[in-house]
Amino acid sequence: xxxxxxxxxxxxxxxxxxxxxxxxxxxxxxxxxxxxxxxxxxxxxxxxxxxxxxxxxxxxxxxxxxxxxxxxxxxxxxxxxxxxxxxxxxxxxxxxxxxxxxxxxxxxxxxxxxxxxxxxxxxxxxxxxxxxxxxxxxxxxxxxxxxxxxxxxxxxxxxxxxxxxxxxxxxxxxxxxxxxxxxxxxxxxxxxxxxxxxxxxxxxxxxxxxxxxxxxxxxxxxxxxxxxxxxxxxxx
Length: 236
Known about the structure:
By secondary structure, the chain is an alpha/beta fold. The chain has a single domain, classed as 3-Layer(aba) Sandwich (Rossmann fold). It is built from nine helices and ten strands. The chain has helices spanning 45-53, 75-80, 98-108, 116-123, 125-129, 140-152, 170-187, 198-204, 227-231; strands at 5-16, 19-30, 34-38, 58-65, 68-69, 83-86, 158-162, 190-194, 207-212, 215-220. The strands form two sheets. The chain has a six-stranded mixed β-sheet with strand order 6-7-8-3-9-10, with helices on both faces. Helix 3 packs parallel to helix 6 (140-152). It starts with a strand and ends in a 5-residue tail after the last helix.
């Protein structure tokens, strides 16, 4: 584990109404890592991401980001502190153009450098080509590229990415994986992602946390992420 810890989660609990979902979750992400959160469907992975970004209130435990306690911080304040979030299903603004979506992301992230738009267009040339097109008319893969670009343009130190391969054709998934690795290499962005696709996990994750019944029950350390070690934790 790198000594420079960016995200430190200790004893996290969260519920939907009276139904507990997260139970005593611990995880720690070092600056510049690419880490997968894996497990079967319905074990709490998306709930974990929503809790980290502030869309679901933690009922117990702590979330520390860059050394500061953000457990009670609102989602928009977490975005301004440098956490980007790409939800499952992408959630682009369908009646806004590609460029307008990016401008919203830039504003939500605290008004990151304007030149970063050129960086986004360099990673995802289709977005530049379609910059005046309504986001709702894009394909699923194009919307996923836009959602990643919208999060990245605000200059986050950490990106939370939920199911990047869902509903996306394989060649676009490969592009997204290459871009995510480039983002880490080029600008040092840390990435925590939820994924069910075995190939995506194997090509992107450096290590994994395994969730089961709302808890982190295992880790797959760096150097041990393999088809065998991952497959046993997924429904394939």
